[in-house]
Amino acid sequence: MILNSMIYTEEGKSLGVKTVSTKLYREEFSRLQYYCKSNKETINYFLKRVALDEVDNPQPMRIAGKNKFEYNRQKDNFSWKIILDDNSKLSIDDNLPADLVEQLLESLMTAVDKRRSYIKKEIKDSVSIPSKLMRMKK
User: What residues contact 61, with CB distance under 8 A and at least 6 apart?
Assistant: First the structure.
Protein backbone atom coordinates (compact mmCIF):
# COMPACT_ATOMS: atom_id res chain seq x y z
CA MET A 1 0.00 0.00 0.00
CA ILE A 2 1.31 3.44 -0.94
CA LEU A 3 0.51 6.36 1.33
CA ASN A 4 0.83 9.85 -0.05
CA SER A 5 1.10 12.86 2.18
CA MET A 6 -1.24 15.60 1.05
CA ILE A 7 -1.81 19.20 1.96
CA TYR A 8 -5.49 20.15 2.22
CA THR A 9 -7.24 23.48 1.75
CA GLU A 10 -9.97 24.71 4.05
CA GLU A 11 -12.59 23.06 1.80
CA GLY A 12 -10.83 19.70 2.19
CA LYS A 13 -9.42 19.60 -1.34
CA SER A 14 -5.91 18.31 -1.85
CA LEU A 15 -3.19 20.65 -3.08
CA GLY A 16 -0.86 17.70 -3.66
CA VAL A 17 -1.57 14.44 -5.43
CA LYS A 18 -4.42 14.08 -7.94
CA THR A 19 -5.81 10.89 -9.43
CA VAL A 20 -6.26 10.35 -13.15
CA SER A 21 -8.30 7.45 -14.50
CA THR A 22 -9.53 5.98 -17.76
CA LYS A 23 -11.85 3.22 -18.87
CA LEU A 24 -10.48 0.32 -20.90
CA TYR A 25 -12.20 -2.65 -22.42
CA ARG A 26 -11.33 -5.93 -20.70
CA GLU A 27 -9.10 -7.04 -23.59
CA GLU A 28 -7.23 -3.71 -23.58
CA PHE A 29 -6.74 -3.92 -19.83
CA SER A 30 -5.40 -7.48 -20.15
CA ARG A 31 -2.89 -6.32 -22.76
CA LEU A 32 -1.83 -3.43 -20.50
CA GLN A 33 -1.47 -5.79 -17.53
CA TYR A 34 0.65 -8.18 -19.59
CA TYR A 35 2.83 -5.34 -20.88
CA CYS A 36 3.46 -3.96 -17.39
CA LYS A 37 4.15 -7.41 -15.95
CA SER A 38 6.59 -8.14 -18.79
CA ASN A 39 8.41 -4.88 -18.10
CA LYS A 40 8.35 -5.37 -14.32
CA GLU A 41 6.46 -2.17 -13.56
CA THR A 42 3.10 -1.43 -12.01
CA ILE A 43 0.24 -0.11 -14.09
CA ASN A 44 0.24 3.11 -12.03
CA TYR A 45 3.96 3.67 -12.61
CA PHE A 46 3.53 2.98 -16.35
CA LEU A 47 0.63 5.43 -16.67
CA LYS A 48 2.47 8.13 -14.73
CA ARG A 49 5.64 7.62 -16.79
CA VAL A 50 3.80 7.76 -20.12
CA ALA A 51 1.68 10.76 -19.14
CA LEU A 52 4.62 12.79 -17.86
CA ASP A 53 6.75 11.87 -20.87
CA GLU A 54 4.03 13.19 -23.19
CA VAL A 55 3.51 16.36 -21.14
CA ASP A 56 7.22 17.07 -20.56
CA ASN A 57 8.31 16.23 -24.12
CA PRO A 58 5.43 17.18 -26.41
CA GLN A 59 5.81 16.11 -30.01
CA PRO A 60 4.15 17.93 -32.90
CA MET A 61 1.38 16.05 -34.68
CA ARG A 62 3.25 16.45 -37.96
CA ILE A 63 6.88 17.05 -38.82
CA ALA A 64 8.54 18.18 -42.03
CA GLY A 65 10.67 15.82 -44.04
CA LYS A 66 11.06 13.94 -47.31
CA ASN A 67 10.44 10.30 -48.15
CA LYS A 68 13.39 8.44 -49.61
CA PHE A 69 13.21 4.98 -51.16
CA GLU A 70 16.47 3.21 -51.99
CA TYR A 71 16.87 0.05 -54.04
CA ASN A 72 19.15 -2.73 -52.73
CA ARG A 73 20.40 -4.80 -55.69
CA GLN A 74 21.79 -7.63 -53.55
CA LYS A 75 18.47 -8.25 -51.81
CA ASP A 76 16.23 -7.04 -54.68
CA ASN A 77 14.21 -4.97 -52.24
CA PHE A 78 13.76 -1.39 -51.12
CA SER A 79 14.33 0.58 -47.96
CA TRP A 80 12.07 3.45 -46.94
CA LYS A 81 13.49 6.29 -44.92
CA ILE A 82 12.33 9.76 -44.02
CA ILE A 83 14.91 12.53 -43.96
CA LEU A 84 13.62 15.21 -41.60
CA ASP A 85 14.31 18.89 -42.20
CA ASP A 86 16.80 18.87 -39.31
CA ASN A 87 18.76 16.19 -41.29
CA SER A 88 17.90 13.40 -38.86
CA LYS A 89 16.82 10.12 -40.45
CA LEU A 90 13.90 7.89 -39.57
CA SER A 91 13.97 4.35 -40.96
CA ILE A 92 10.48 3.06 -41.74
CA ASP A 93 11.41 -0.31 -43.29
CA ASP A 94 14.62 -1.80 -44.69
CA ASN A 95 13.04 -4.81 -46.36
CA LEU A 96 10.20 -3.75 -48.67
CA PRO A 97 9.66 -6.31 -51.45
CA ALA A 98 10.03 -4.91 -54.97
CA ASP A 99 6.53 -6.13 -55.92
CA LEU A 100 5.02 -4.22 -53.01
CA VAL A 101 6.76 -0.98 -54.02
CA GLU A 102 5.66 -1.40 -57.66
CA GLN A 103 2.05 -2.00 -56.59
CA LEU A 104 2.22 0.97 -54.18
CA LEU A 105 3.53 3.21 -56.98
CA GLU A 106 0.72 2.12 -59.29
CA SER A 107 -1.89 2.70 -56.60
CA LEU A 108 -0.45 6.12 -55.71
CA MET A 109 -0.35 7.21 -59.36
CA THR A 110 -4.01 6.22 -59.78
CA ALA A 111 -4.99 8.21 -56.68
CA VAL A 112 -2.91 11.23 -57.70
CA ASP A 113 -4.42 11.17 -61.21
CA LYS A 114 -7.93 11.15 -59.70
CA ARG A 115 -6.99 14.12 -57.51
CA ARG A 116 -5.53 16.02 -60.48
CA SER A 117 -8.74 15.42 -62.41
CA TYR A 118 -10.89 16.51 -59.46
CA ILE A 119 -9.01 19.80 -58.90
CA LYS A 120 -8.67 20.31 -62.68
CA LYS A 121 -4.88 20.40 -62.55
CA GLU A 122 -3.37 20.57 -66.03
CA ILE A 123 -0.03 22.36 -65.52
CA LYS A 124 2.67 20.30 -63.79
CA ASP A 125 3.87 22.89 -61.24
CA SER A 126 0.47 24.38 -60.38
CA VAL A 127 -0.90 23.89 -56.87
CA SER A 128 -4.41 23.66 -55.47
CA ILE A 129 -5.97 26.84 -54.18
CA PRO A 130 -9.23 27.31 -52.26
CA SER A 131 -12.10 27.60 -54.77
CA LYS A 132 -13.52 30.25 -52.46
CA LEU A 133 -10.95 32.64 -53.97
CA MET A 134 -12.48 32.13 -57.40
CA ARG A 135 -15.95 33.04 -56.09
CA MET A 136 -14.55 36.30 -54.70
CA LYS A 137 -13.18 37.23 -58.15
CA LYS A 138 -16.63 37.34 -59.82
Answer: none
